[in-house]
Write a structure and sequence with these properties.
Elements: H1 3-13, H2 18-35, H3 39-43, H4 46-50, E1 55-64, E2 70-81, E3 87-93, H5 99-115, E4 122-127, H6 136-150, E5 159-162, H7 169-183, H8 204-222, E6 231-234, H9 239-250, E7 254-260, E8 263-266, H10 273-284, H11 292-296, E9 301-304, E10 315-317, H12 327-335, E11 340-342, H13 351-359, E12 363-365, H14 367-370, H15 372-387, H16 393-415, H17 424-442
Parallel strand pairs: 3-4, 3-5, 6-7, 6-10, 10-11, 11-12
Antiparallel strand pairs: 1-2, 2-4, 7-8, 8-9
Helix pairs in contact: 1-2, 2-5, 2-17, 5-17, 6-7, 8-9, 8-15, 8-16, 9-10, 12-13, 15-16, 16-17
Length: about 450
């Protein structure tokens, strides 16, 4: 495999799809050496097939707002790879959603799901619908219109969507209600992230953040460090950030920063239950600003226009959006003494930021490993739905612990360099790739 040749071909076929091309290049550069040891992969053109999605659905979503005006958005579902299981991946509602973003997320999801040890393929979907400022009634009508276009292409053994940015339990509920009406069957396994009274799994809302901190715990232990007493800066204030902040606090760390599009809140005293609960209130407000946190809690200070990475911390956890932490941010963090960074968001760091972290020899791990706890628990939700039972929170948490430990072990296995430094990016990419590639090879040219 020649990475430059493959990338040149992709850039020709998909010009301007920067996020997608970035994600593909990172993986190909990581796996090149291992891939070239397997001529059977080259003969079967595994990479050339793997980097293109199986299919893309694009559809118009028309709905009526509270003023009675007709609105039109674009909806998408990208079924990327089903070599190891049914398509699985979230739905994202955000004004910036486009095919490039969803292809990058679906590509990443393929390897992330492979790392979980569960039989799930990779997919992603969403719309350029902006939920900020929308009423519950408007969100319901949009979700129903979105599902009207999607329902016939998903199913428990076909494609199982979940939540993502802009899509939480409320949105999953509205979409499932419409699915049930259209399909005329009560099949809870068709969506994950459901409510507890109709097929949801305990600790699913917390799972992405919880799993991320379990992975960080293993990473620190491997390096002879501890999270107890460490200061943590987190970007975002939504469900993922809340889960990460909750578990970090529980494990003895002090979360001193959360951020939003409007700026960063410096929270030197750390989190308590009231503050953590208020993060959920902020998310549910649909205002997409973090400043009210400092208005409610006088020991916190809001700094407009600044990122979380401007706050001096030991551990940096991007939890919001792709490419939210750039090379300059990484340099600032390192200058301020940060010794660990882990992507809780998908591709949260730019390539320049990753190179800066790795060049400085600090602990760094990628989103496809760190944040896999969310989709892993979605997989556990699928299992519970298939068996028509519900596990206790302790049972789900125990399984999540095991999965994150297994992912960390796979990263160490494939990412340990001769000098002892663990390249978690390379380790995660190779571990996920080898599983998917072998499955594709054994299933023939399809």
């Amino acid at each position: 495999m020649k990475v430059q040749t493959i990338m040149a071909d992709l850039e020709r076929k998909h010009p301007g799809e920067n996020e997608y091309l970035q994600a593909v290049q990172e993986v190909l550069e990581s796996i090149e050496e291992v891939y070239n040891l397997h001529p059977e992969f080259e003969k079967a053109k595994i990479v050339e097939r793997m980097v293109e999605p199986d299919r893309i659905f694009t559809f118009r979503v028309t709905w009526v707002d509270d003023r009675g005006e007709i609105q039109t958005n674009l909806g998408y579902r990208i079924q990327f790879n089903s070599a190891i299981g049914p398509y699985k991946g979230g739905i994202r509602f955000h004004k910036a959603v486009n095919p490039s973003m969803l292809k990058f997320l679906g590509f990443e999801q393929t390897f992330k799901n492979a790392l979980t040890t569960l039989p799930m393929g990779g997919a992603k979907g969403g719309s350029d619908f902006d939920p900020v400022g929308k009423s519950d009634a408007e969100i319901m009508r949009f979700c129903q219109a979105f599902m009207w276009e999607l329902w016939n292409n998903i199913g428990p053994d076909t494609d199982v969507p979940a939540g993502d940015v802009g899509v939480g339990g409320r949105e999953i509920g509205y979409m499932y209600g419409m699915y049930k009406k259209l399909a005329r069957e009560y099949n809870t396994g068709v969506l994950t992230g459901k409510g507890m009274t109709w097929g949801g799994s305990l600790i699913r809302p917390e799972a992405t953040g919880f799993g991320a901190l379990y992975f960080v715990e293993h990473m620190l232990a491997k390096a002879g460090k501890s999270i107890k007493g460490a200061t943590v800066a987190i970007s975002g204030f939504g469900n993922v950030a809340w889960g990460a902040a909750t578990k970090a606090t529980e494990l003895g760390a002090k979360v001193i920063a959360i951020s939003g599009p409007d700026g960063v809140v410096y929270n030197p005293e750390g989190m308590n239950k009231e503050k953590l609960d208020y993060m959920l209130v902020l998310r549910a407000s649909n205002r997409n600003i973090v400043a009210p946190f400092a208005e409610k809690f006088p020991d916190a200070t809001f700094i407009p226009g600044k990122k979380a990475w401007s706050i001096k911390c030991d551990i940096a956890l991007p939890c919001a959006f792709q490419n939210e932490l750039n090379g300059d941010d990484a340099a600032e963090l390192i200058a301020n003494g940060t010794w660990c960074a882990a992507e809780v968001s998908n591709m949260g760091c730019t390539p320049e930021a990753i190179a800066t972290f790795q060049g400085a020899g600090i602990l760094f791990a990628p989103g496809k490993a760190v944040n896999a706890g969310g989709v892993a628990t979605s997989g556990l939700e699928m299992t519970q739905n298939a068996m028509h039972l519900s596990w206790s929170a302790a049972e789900v948490d125990q399984k999540l612990h095991y999965i994150m430990e297994s992912i960390h072990a796979a990263c160490v296995k494939y990412g340990t360099q001769e000098d002892g430094y663990i390249n978690y990016v390379k380790g995660a990419n190779i571990a996920g790739f080898m599983k998917v590639a072998q499955a594709m090879l054994e299933q023939g040219i399809v």
